[in-house]
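Example 163, ligand coenzyme A.
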Amino acid sequence: MSLTDFIRKPVFEIFPLEAGDRMVAAALHKARFTRPWSDGELHALLAQDTVFGFVAWQVNALAGRPAGGFVLARAAAGEAEILTISVDARFERSGLGWRLMQAALREARMRGAEEMFLEVDEGNIAALRLYDRLGFAKVGERKAYYESAGGRSTALVMRRDLR
Ligand SMILES: CC(C)(COP(=O)(O)OP(=O)(O)OC[C@H]1O[C@@H](n2cnc3c(N)ncnc32)[C@H](O)[C@@H]1OP(=O)(O)O)[C@@H](O)C(=O)NCCC(=O)NCCS
């Protein structure tokens, strides 16, 4: 492999999301969601014992330590939920969403959760495909749940067994 190949292909590793990563997570969230979460909101969430997350750090960057995406989840009383997941558009479709979700599923299981829930806009094809491939299935819907430029859209509630 030549040096240019090495530079062209970013390599990421998944690490637990810490309170100190909240600014990075807020920037990743803001880039992908119309109602961004502030670093203060993320800090408050991460301060809760039941909340956990993971971040993908690029490990072969020439400068800095770019983040490719993060996931935030909660597990309590045998149930887990994905609070949000966001992958930098530059690194989409390179497996980061999959790896972040796998880390969240594993951690939820470790914390004793027997099932995991999430909500997704019915028009979000990328997320729906990802969740479908991960074994999530629709268990309900919330009409006119999300506000978007084109009006209000429906949220699908999805569930996956962790046992
Ligand atoms: C949804 C999201 C997290 C997916 O992350 P990603 O890193 O691009 O996904 P991956 O590369 O891990 O993809 C895993 C699988 O998901 C499916 N998938 C992901 N993006 C897809 C797309 N744009 N179209 C169709 N299928 C897609 C594919 O099955 C893919 O496997 P494949 O590439 O081998 O075919 C990312 O698009 C994102 O951050 N979107 C904006 C924020 C968002 O919508 N979050 C979810 C809110 S519920």
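Summary: The helical segments are 3-8, 22-32, 39-46, 96-110, 125-133.
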